Amino acid sequence: MKTPIIGFIGAGNMASSLIGGLITDGWSPDCIRAADTDSARREAIRSQFAIHSSEDNISVAMEADVLVLAIKPQALHQVATELSNTVQQQKPLVISIAAGVREPDINRWLGGNIAIVRSMPNTPAMVQSGATAMIANAAVTEEQRELAETILRAVGLTLWLEDESQLDAVTALSGSGPAYFFLVMEAMEHAGLELGLPGETARLLTLQTAFGAAKMALESTDNAAILRERVTSPGGTTEKALEVFENGKFRELFDQALKAACERSRELAELIGKNT
What we know:
The chain is α/β, with parallel strands linked by helices and 276 residues long. The protein is built from twelve helices and eight strands. α3 (57-63) packs across α4 (73-90).
């Protein structure tokens, strides 16, 4: 079977990560195209991956069996409208990684009746450790679902959702989630400094502790609550620290934070769709 041609509209960090992951997975650079108006990005992606790049979106779309929309959400309406005639002619599978732009709006801008997978990756995809949730519209075939999953799995975990509205919750949880962990790491490092540790020692201990905890959770069949209980000795130091978190209503604060992020995701999607 012919290997599909994948065309990227946009050659920024996320596109570069996907291209790197695909090539690592065995995809030939000859099957990958990228378009970007920024000449420095085009040159960087061409020299790094030996793929064909262009400043012309339409020329890339003309060749693509799969078209990955990897551009800023604010620019998607204009770019999709410009591509609509080509997309209607070629009928590629379209994968959007533009945060907060809903499938019906993308479909409308592309002229309608297009197979679209909308996805929400997160920034650890840039180190092939991402988490990506996806939804497919009714026009996507089973073969196209498998292809979309193969492409997005090149940078980490992939999960299918049944309802597009769940992507707002995904945005709040995993899309924005790396920033929450960075904040916790920042706070832990600062606390270590306040307790008298040297700066580099506090930093390295924080990072390795975060990495180790995530690795333990990934490799265990037990949930986070059980893992927490196992490392919390009655009357010990961990229990004392956790009491402070609980008394400070740590869980309630997280609930409020994720609800705020989810609501903002809905607001932005409405705004982008309404203004176009």
